[in-house]
Design a protein that fits this description.
Keywords: Membrane, Mitochondrion, Translocase, Transmembrane, Transmembrane helix. This protein is mostly helical and 259 residues long. It contains seven helices and no strands. The longest helix is centred in the middle third of the chain and has 34 residues, at 71-104.
Length: 259
């Protein structure tokens, strides 16, 4: 076989199994909402978590210990992450479209006003503003980590990434508290549906991002990253910045303008 600068991956069952397990999650969510049975959702979530962990282990092994991720491979991985983030932008664009479609021309069924009649919105400058500050600060700390890695400052990188993970967890804690205090639910007109779908999926992405950064923190402890090879961290950092930007749009459109 001729030598190439690209990594010809071996046969792996994880993409196919991961697709099936991820498919079980939305189907299981529908079953749980309509029938009250969370079994399929739990099965899909556990299977996805296990498969992702094993798949990431294989990728880390190929990149760090086997040296398969040369310059061409790293460039391809960066392009893949970029395209993935573009697909995520399209995903959230649908939620914003639904929200503005309903709010700019409220239907008579919701009182021809926005927010709908009977909906008491959350205070704009309380917990939502604190959440915004927390996520913006986490964006600063993950950038601090990036510069520390490129400068070869291992201790500073660990400190910055630890702070980022802590802020991400704190954001999720605040979001849970906010959900506990809302006077409306997912079933309360189009406002409740659009609010909980948009902010809920964003919270899910924050959870995934926090797990992603936690894996990078663990790899940082084991010295897997250096000045020239840290594509795994770059992917996590780009994803985290995307989550930050989405929250800014959510805060301005739903919490501020929409209230």
């Amino acid at each position: 076989m001729p030598r190439t600068p690209f990594h010809l991956v071996e046969f792996s069952p994880w993409p196919l199994l991961g697709s099936f397990s991820i498919f079980c999650m939305p189907v299981g969510l529908v079953y749980m909402v309509r029938g009250g049975d969370p079994s399929l959702l739990i099965l899909g979530t556990v299977a996805t978590t296990v498969i992702a962990a094993i798949w990431w282990r294989d990728v880390v092994r190929e990149a760090t210990f086997q040296g398969h991720h040369a310059t061409y491979v790293a460039t391809g991985l960066k392009m893949g992450v970029g395209l993935f983030i573009v697909s995520e932008i399209c995903f959230f664009f649908a939620f914003f479209w639904a929200y503005f479609h309903s709010s700019l021309s409220p239907a008579i069924e919701v009182g021809s006003t926005w927010p709908p009649v009977g909906i008491t919105t959350l205070e704009t400058f309380q917990v939502p503003l604190l959440n915004t500050c927390v996520l913006l600060l986490s964006g600063v700390s993950v950038t601090w980590t990036h510069h520390s890695i490129e400068e070869g400052s291992h201790k500073s990188a660990v400190q910055g990434l630890s702070l980022t993970v802590a802020l991400g967890v704190y954001f999720l804690f605040l979001q849970y508290g906010e959900y506990s205090e809302t006077s409306f639910s997912l079933a309360d007109s189009v406002y409740g549906s659009s609010f909980f779908m948009a902010t809920g999926f964003h919270g899910m992405h924050v959870t995934v991002g926090a797990v992603f950064l936690s894996v990078c923190l663990l790899r940082l402890f084991f010295l897997h990253f250096d000045k020239s090879h840290h594509v795994g961290f770059l992917a996590a950092a780009w994803y985290w910045h995307f989550v930050d930007v989405v929250w800014l749009f959510l805060y301005v459109s739903i919490y501020w303008w929409g209230s």
